[in-house]
Amino acid sequence: MKNLFPALLLSSLLVTPLSAKPLANEAGWEFTISLNAGYVSGQSNLSTSDDNEIISDVDSKAESTDSVIAFPFARIQYTTEDLNTQFFLGNSRDQISTSQFQYELGVTHQFADKSKITAAYFPELPLFNDTWEDPFLVDQARTKTDDNAQGGRIQLDRIAGSPITLKYAYARNKVDNDNSGESWSGLTTQQLQSLQRSSQYHRAEIETMFPVYLQQTKVFLKPTLQYTARIADGDAISYDEYNFQLGLLIFSGRHTSITTFNIGNSSYKDKNPIFDNKQDSINLGIFSVYSYAEAFNWKPVTFTLIAGYSQKDSDITFYDENGLIVSAGLAYTF
Predict the structure, then answer these.
(1) Cβ distance 157 to 164 under 8 Å?
(2) Do 221 and 248 form a contact (C-beta atoms < 8 A)?
(3) The predicted structure's pLDDT at residue 61
(4) What gap in Å lies between CA 264 and CA 313, rounded to an integer?
(5) Which first-to-last residue range defines the signal peptide (predicted)?
(6) Is there a domain that residue 2 lies in?
(7) 280 lies in a domain?
(8) Residues 152, 179: Cα–Cα separation, whole Å
(9) Of 5, 116, 185, 251, which is least surrounded by CB within 10 A?
(10) Which of 175, 30, 165, 174 is nearest to 98 (CA)?
(11) Residue 63 belongs to domain with CATH number
(12) Nearest Cα to 312, choosing from 322, 304, 302?
C-alpha cells in the first residue's frame, strides 16, 4: 500500500513515450503543477493508519482501512540549449509506470547515439514516512516513529544505441525508535537484535523495450528483471528479492496508457523469533497510468487516471497485505 500511495502525486507527469528522443521540446525551464484526488484502501498490520493503531493478536490478517486523499504536486526541470542535458528536482517520469518513486535532485545527459545517463540523489524527507515502534504490540495503542531513507541511483538507457537499459540504486533507511518485539517476554537479546529494521538496500535492474505494433497506435512491451537486497541490522528482516515486470505501453495521439504487471518473491535470511518462521513471500501487482494531453483543448493541461493493486502473500500471516489505489488528476505545465 505504501508503494502505491506516492503514485497519486506523480501520475500527471507521464505524458510522453519512454523512448522519446529529445529530453525536452525546447531549452529552458519547465514547471509542472498538478492536483490529484483519489481513493486508497488496503490491509496491512504495518500500516500506520489511525484505524490500525490497535491489533488484538499477531496471528490474523489486518483489518481493512480506506481513505480519500487530495493534494498538489510540482516538478521543476531545466534543459540546456543543445537539448542534451537536463537538471531536475522532483520525480522522474520513467519510474512512474513501475510504481518506484522518490523526490530527487538529479541530472540526465543524452549522447549522440541517443543513449542516456541519469544520476540522482534523494534526501531524507522528515514527516513523510513512519512506522510502529513495536509492530507486535497487542491490545494497546501502538506508537509511531520516523522511518526515513536517503540514497541515490544511476541509470544507463539504451546503451550504445541498443534497447538495453541498466539501473542501480542504493538507499539507507533508519527507524528512529525501533522497539520491535520488546513487548514480548522471553525473547533473548540476540532475538530482539534480529528484528531491528534499519537497513541498506541495493537494487539492480536490466530491462529492454521493443515494438509489437507501429501503426497509428503504437504498442510496446517492456520486460524487466529486478534484484533487490535488503541488508538490515536484524537478520530476520534481511532478504533477497527477485521480480519480473512486464510493461504494456500504448501511444495513440493525445492518449498514453502504460500498464505494468509484477510478480516476484522475497527470501529472508533468518526466522522471525516471534513466529519461529521465515517471512518469505510471493508478491503480485498491477499498476496502470492513463493520460490525455491537451485536455479541454488546452495545450498546457493533461488529464490523468491511475489505478493500482498490490498483494503480498507471506509464510507468516501477520505480514500478508494488499493495497488498492484509484485516482484522477489535472496537471498544468508552463
Answers:
(1) no
(2) yes
(3) 87
(4) 11
(5) 1-20
(6) no
(7) yes
(8) 28
(9) 185
(10) 165
(11) 2.40.160
(12) 322
